[in-house]
Amino acid sequence: MKMNVLKGTLALTVILTLVAFTNTIEKKKVNIKESTIQWEGEKLTGSHEGTIDLKDGFFLMENGELVGGEFTADMTTIDVTDLEGDNRDKLMGHLRSDDFFGVDKYETAKFVIKTVAKKGNVYGVSGDLTIKGKTNPIAFDMKMNENSATTNLTIDRTKYDVRYGSNSFFDNLGDKAIYDEFDLAVNLKF
Questions:
Q1: Which of 115, 127, 154, 187 shows the greatest Cβ crowding within 10 Å of its Cβ?
Q2: In the Cβ-directed half-sphere of 178, how many Cα atoms lie within 13 Å?
Q3: What does the pLDDT read at residue 6?
Q4: Which pTM value belongs to this model?
Q5: What's the Cα-to-Cα distance from 91 to each of 51, 95, 118, rounded to whole Å?
Q6: Residue 178 and residue 161: Cα distance in Å, rounded?
Q7: Which residue segment(s) compose the domain that 47 sits in?
């Protein structure tokens, strides 16, 4: 009987010790109303810029350190902020069409963090970005504090089957060529 009590006590001690040292992962939900995604695309004769709304997102934190996360952008909200009137409507319609992001079929784009490396007050983040149903790895640096995370990154649109006006796929575009890469400035609040 004493041996069973001793074994039970030992087992309970081991379990309590494991629970005490188990790190808990906290899910920090992003405030989509206060977060922003700004884009800029360039062509030979100039550039355009605008915004895309975040649909949802969260960071995974362990002992106050970033370990993962997942974010979904609502591509149906792609907006143009440097034009007005008919020119704005025309470019927005074109960006939403199959020539660019095909938002009728691909309503969202998604980024899933796969690995994180802390570098001082900056995190090196890598993960999978999915646009138009195509997934590719991407890596960038992200600054993070208690209530926000910010990053600037460059995306090669041709990797996601967004080829309209690309010199990489079409000849003789002249000054109608659109650069393959576009920039995002992301400011996430939580």
A1: 127
A2: 17
A3: 53
A4: 0.84
A5: 13, 6, 39
A6: 14
A7: 24-189
Instruction: Determine, yes or no, domain membership for 42.
Output: yes
Answer for the pair 123, 142: CB distance below 8 angstroms, yes or no.
Answer: yes
Taking the C-alpha atoms of residue 151 and residue 37, their distance in angstroms, rounded to an integer, is 10
pLDDT of residue 14: 55
Q: Which residues of the chain have pLDDT under 70?
A: 1-23, 167-168, 171-175
| CA nearest neighbour of 111 among 90, 131, 89 | 131
Q: Kindly state whether residue 1 falls inside one of the protein's structural domains.
A: no
The enclosing domain of 90 has a CATH number of 2.40.128.110
Q: Total domain count for the chain?
A: 1
pLDDT at residue 51, as a whole number: 98
- In angstroms, the CA 50 to CA 53 distance is 10
Closest to 48 in 3D by CA, of 84, 98, 86: 84
Per-residue confidence (pLDDT) for residue 173, from 0 to 100: 67
In a 10 Å sphere around its CB, with 0-12 CB exposed, 13-18 middle and 19+ buried, how is residue 127 labelled?
buried
